[in-house]
User: Fold this.
Amino acid sequence: MGSRKTKVLAVAVAGAVLVAAEVALYLCFRLSRPFYLSTAAVLASTVVTLLLLLHCTAGRAERMAVRRALDEGEELRVEYSYFRKVAGLPRKFSFQALAAATDDFQCVAGRGSSGTVFRGILDDGTQVAVKRLGAASGADHADKEFKAEVSAIAGAQHVNLARLLGFCLGSPRFLVYEYMEHGSLDRWIFPCHSDRRCLPWARRYQVAVDVAKALAYLHHDCRAKVLHLDVKPENILLDDGFRGVLSDFGLSKLAGKEQSRVVTTVRGTAGYLAPEWLLGTGVTEKSDVYSYGMVLLEMVAGRRCLRAEEDGGWSYLPRIAVDMARGGRVMEVVDGRLVSSGGDQVEEAAVRRAVHVALWCAQERAGARPSMARVVEMLEGRGVGDVEAPPPSDTIMVDLLALDDHARGDRTFGLPARYAGRATVSSSVLSKNDSFALSYLSGR
Assistant:
């Protein structure tokens, strides 16, 4: 705009000078008409030539300036893309790019309460897991999950946390993660899947340490404390080296370093929820510790914390573990497939350590549970000797188990699938009439 005004002003000045010169020549020298006209033509052509040269020079300079700006912009874009990739920041994908990567969303890798996950391959050959957020749960719920997941994991950099590669805005919304070939932990520790895969003991213990480190990072080393609030085997992935990777932050909460607790509605997966969820006193990082303890017990035993038995009752794993640990029979808690296979050395000291740590984490009183940083130290044996068994826990869960369906009314609850398991002590077998307790503990 400034250059255009300058050119107009230059043309106006040149015209005014030309007219003044012609008038001066005519008045001063009283030239003949032919000579006067020829002189005016020469002056006009000279001025026009100068204007054209000025225009060409200005246009060339302008084009060079635009080209330099474009080159600098492209250089900045490349540098920004490079540093963004190095820093691990998520990028924005278009819907068309994700549709092409997933073959129009044909390859389903898994389904969960928060959405469907598709397997895909980006243009650069990177394998990704594309998560479509809860189309069935409504736009508002999907938006909350999207914001929670991005805010919790976008800036986190830890080897045992799922890496968010990008996102896609719109309806529905998508999150793009690194793809884990071995899938989720539940497929490797529970004998209810058709492929009958069984994760060896040494790898199970390493995954337990990996997940503990991830939670310790979220609780203690992030700028804003992150509460995961949905720790369970389905949300623990295994990478190419069978290392544990914590994923699915759709229910997570951010809390200030000095914030003692977060008040929120009951969410997450029943069976892994800490008692404070029911009490309505607010959740803390110790709620994640409780969920982790339940998962650790399931990894040791290779079974759900609550399951149906052949005699018509239900067995509750934490009570079994307590009885076995006190009776010096902690090896009876171990997954029978690990003991019978003979291909993996299961050390009793490691089992006792894992069970004791899990029982400490699953204490019903939040203040009695260790921090995740302490859990890592106990599992790795750093600065501690043998981990002692925890004292008897409070009776909140026992009281829940004592309730029957006559007090709560008949209702149908999703219970875990029945499958044969190891024999349990009689004190750990519960009645199927404990409907309210079973609904809270299982959620399946």
